[in-house]
């Protein structure tokens, strides 16, 4: 091997993420002149067992905290260790990063510093080989365009005035191609704005670009989505289904679930009944973190009760970590896993977790974070895994559409070889819609109290 692909320079700099908080960008240069730059995202509803990011000052606070220490870790510790190594030896690069850190949850260097370096290596190596990142990570088999899950109503920690439920997502399963799926979703997003606007409800948006009005109950948010799907001219359930991420850890205290919009407090059993009721009434095919991250018994119960009709995804429960995923597989918790590279730290670990899930028959949903950048690597990751699902927020706001636009480019580049995952990504779909969804409006006045005071 020549020196061409050896790492010659590693630098890092502070930038702002989509919430206006500091994050870092890492650049890696190779002997052949290739330079690749990546940016690292950050979550707000983070799982307790996620790899820790390095934040100056209080490590548990993300808001307003700098990443200067993480940058020093890249330039002072990571750079000297990686310099001279072949960038296309990803597993050795990542093993070196893990050894340098030496802690279970990446507390020493920070998962943000580690992911920046790991991902920048992969990008630099791909560019030096003259291939796209999805091809570099996924090889010759990578060809499946994922179904986008478009988060059009934001709540929870991403929009405190909205629903208790963090994410209401459109899943355009009935589209023939990725491009069409994105169009279905964008048109429905615009129709949703009209539904809200016509009712005098505010159309302000949350962290992921979805609208965040204050409606009268949590179910009312499903009603406005159903209206928007129909108003845009699509058939709910058949062309566009619905996915939820309640991020239930955020409203669980002392094993009880506190739904402020409904003025109700529920036990685990009652919370499961609540989701079961919703999945009967609405075309919901994906349910992520329906219970809190330490409610393993509850996850087992909801998976055996609803897992055949609805995909149950573990995000805070699994934190892209093989150890937690293995526990889930062994105990029958969930039917899928969220894949977020910054929850675990390196690209190698991310791929290992995803492949372990796929071997066990679990779905993989590749995901952005609520604090994002223009980096599009997760779009390539979804195609590399052929996993058929991605969530990257609303089809609006630059940092969200950057991922969808990247997928448009990949679809175009793959040409006739591109396969859109569509309904095949959701084996539960047939079962869930076979019995027919009987949509009834759960609340008679969904806009009460939602009107913006400045409007007539
Ligand atoms: C994307 C999510 O939010 P965050 O990045 O805030 O964890 C999520 O919970 O799936
Ligand atoms: Mg989540």
From TrEMBL:
Keywords attached to this entry: Cytoplasm, Glycolysis, Lyase, Magnesium, Metal-binding, Secreted
Keyword Transit peptide: no
Biological processes annotated in GO: glycolytic process
Lineage top rank: taxon: Bacteria
Database matches in NCBIfam families: eno (TIGR01060)
Domain Enolase N-terminal: 7-137
Annotated region (Disordered), positions in chain: 41-62
Name of the protein: Enolase
Gene: eno
EC id: 4.2.1.11
